[in-house]
């Protein structure tokens, strides 16, 4: 295949090593074309002539470009209420149980790990708001983190096109989003009631976590499919360490803890509970 820039297997192996070091993501051989396509845009924007030049730039330790590199590689496919059954289970089973267990403190802590552009944490916030009325006085906080600084900025702003929210029931859209007018026509913004529940932060799951033990629920969905088994084991072990003894872990539909972690029991439909 004719390419604008020479892209050899050596280039790909160097990039794959960098991606693994900085993100924990293991790129398979079939990702070579994807990597070329995404990084070729960076070469054009930086007016570089080759992948060799680009790799030399990364080797110089430019933190800004390293961030752009990571943002270019990571995948951010998401939607509101993706895998609807998870939110139904959260509302019908998990939140009522946590309200009983945490009745004294009236606090609930949820972590959306790999939150992408914010659709997941806003779906969580809607679920919480509809399950726990404000008048009950509960202190609920949702930490939303992602490696990609661009999607964190999008999530923090909470502004989406109408196309992105088309799947939401009209009543939910009306209750929890503001419609834009004038220059903002065709856009919606998440209400302050939702935004106030969520803290967006850039975070590398392979690095240090500013998260204290005692988390009630972790959503980490469609993230570990990019990690090798050893990385998955380390990650789930760390999740178990910060979850409460009976806390919940939700993973993606194609993910499993089978032969990866023995610290969780499967409740069904990719919902796990930490074992004491």
Automatic annotation (TrEMBL):
Its EC number is 2.1.1.80. It comes from Candidatus Tenderia electrophaga. Keywords: Methyltransferase, S-adenosyl-L-methionine, Transferase. One of its GO terms (biological process) is methylation. Residues 1-276 form the CheR-type methyltransferase domain. PROSITE patterns: CHER (PS50123). Pfam families: CheR (PF01739), CheR_N (PF03705). This is Chemotaxis protein methyltransferase. GO terms for molecular function: protein-glutamate O-methyltransferase activity. S-adenosyl-L-methionine binds at residues 76, 78, 82, 120, 146, 204-205, 221-222. It is an enzyme of class 2 (transferase). The keyword S-adenosyl-L-methionine applies. Methylation of the membrane-bound methyl-accepting chemotaxis proteins (MCP) to form gamma-glutamyl methyl ester residues in MCP.
